[in-house]
Task: structure prediction
Amino acid sequence: MSKKESNPNVTYIKVVDHVSTEVTRYATRAEWDNDDTEESHDIQGLEVVDNPDIGYHDLVVNFPVEKNVNYFLLYVSYDTGDSFGRYCGKVEFVSLFKEESEALVARKKILKMKEITSIQIDNNGHKETVYNGSWTGYFESVNGIYVETVRRIK
Result:
């Protein structure tokens, strides 16, 4: 398949997420110090990205995403940082599901992940690999693993 051709079985998704960031501690004058921040997220819905070579996307799914249909977005909220600053309320979008039951099973599998690794989850009859590197580590802590009902808005 050439780059110009599209795969009808794949949909590229951008999650419309309005993020606001608040500084909770300003850096000192030390050159190594960073601000501490807290993010708030307001997930509005989904947009289909027609050309992934041009447009940014968060997820790739193996089914068409239609308007006026409920889907189930699985995501992780976590805190991270380093010796120089703390960044709270980060979000990683894991996958989008047609069936809430599949999203809840995947959520339970992720809850059991204790170290940096990957797992296989079922989504619409296909296996997906999920890596937890963003939210697992020395400075990371999980705030929650959520399944949110979303709809396509564009």
